[in-house]
Specification:
- With 300 residues, this protein is α+β, with helices and mostly antiparallel strands.
- The chain has 2 domains: 61 residues, no CATH class; 162 residues, Structural Genomics Hypothetical 15.5 Kd Protein In mrcA-pckA Intergenic Region, Chain A.
- It is 40% helix and 8% strand.
- It contains 12 helices and 7 strands.
- A 5-stranded antiparallel beta sheet has the order 4-3-5-7-6, covered by helices on one side.
- The longest helix has 17 residues.
- The two termini are 53 Å apart.
- One of its GO terms (molecular function) is rRNA binding.
């Protein structure tokens, strides 16, 4: 195959020509490009014969979008093959899922999961804690667990953090008899959390009762006039076995909870062994991902 590597200025671009040129309206294709169009080339790689008129800055920027590297890549492949173009068989690569990830990727995934668990906690808030406590990972996690919205979720009164923040924003929550309108309000040891008397408190009490007693069992306690007492006793024994499987969320050891009065109090500072997450994070071992804030400033 004939080769000509003379660099010429053709519409202000360097190119290599191989074989005979053929014209199709306003586009040129070499013999090489005609053959390899099906395999390698894309439509954007074709270049026009006539230059475009300068209309503005936008048209000037389009000239730089022509890909020279792709053409060089095609030529280098053809030189190896010796003029014959064919598709090589694609070998399937087996991926070992058991293979351990790199420490950076592992820490970065944990960092993102950790922030999403706290409903996309802002980096600004996260970095302030990092500077305040001088990179001590244990203290940072303890301070995040002392937030009001997090204490409500751990207690079991609330199903999600969205619901907890809604209660706080609508000013239904009291801390030591005062309204707490911010979800990031930090609680100290000995503080008591309670709810305002109103419709919100009644809804929570109804929900907690449903968790323990089923609808069928309530009818038995309300309807006292039973004709068949023996049959009634048999049903009660059967129901007790079913209620054993029903469990209420008691909360961690560092919280004291009363379900009847809807009160929460923080007895001691939270420990890492008592904290649990829905994803695979062991705070006793994998806490070092917080140190990424110091090394990599552009984390999102």
């Amino acid at each position: 195959m004939r080769q000509r590597k003379n660099v010429t200025k053709f519409i202000k671009r360097a190119y290599r020509d191989m074989g005979e040129l053929k014209q199709y309206k306003r586009y040129t294709k070499t013999r090489l490009n005609i053959i390899s169009n099906k395999v390698f080339l894309l439509k954007n790689e074709l270049y026009p014969l006539q230059p475009k008129k300068k209309r503005g800055k936008r048209d000037q920027q389009l000239k730089t979008t022509y890909t020279k590297k792709k053409l060089k890549r095609i030529l280098s492949l053809l030189f190896r093959i010796g003029g014959k173009i064919y598709r090589k068989k694609i070998k399937k690569k087996k991926i070992n899922l058991k293979k351990q990830q790199e420490p950076f990727t592992q820490n970065l995934t944990l960092h993102r999961l950790f922030r999403k668990f706290y409903l996309n906690l802002k980096l600004k808030q996260f970095k302030l804690l990092y500077k305040k406590y001088k990179g001590n990972e244990k203290v940072i996690i303890q301070q995040l667990e002392k937030r009001v919205d997090m204490v409500l979720l751990r207690s079991g009164f609330v199903r999600s953090l969205y619901e907890a923040r809604q209660i706080i924003n609508h000013k239904h929550l009291l801390v030591n008899g005062k309204i707490a309108s911010l979800p990031g309000y930090m609680i100290n040891v000995g503080d008591i959390i309670s709810f305002k008397e109103g419709s919100m408190k009644r809804k929570l009490l109804k929900r907690l009762k449903k968790g323990l007693i089923s609808k069928k069992s309530r009818k038995r306690w309300t309807n006292r006039n039973f004709k068949f007492k023996r049959f009634q006793n048999y049903k009660r024994k059967r129901q007790k076995k079913k209620n054993k499987n029903k469990v209420r969320a008691t909360g961690p050891n560092y919280l004291e909870i009363s379900h009847s009065l809807l009160l929460i109090s923080l007895i001691e500072e939270p420990k890492l062994t008592a904290i649990k997450y829905p994803f695979t994070l062991q705070p006793e071992k994998n806490i070092k991902f917080i140190t990424l804030l110091k090394k990599y400033k552009r984390l999102r």
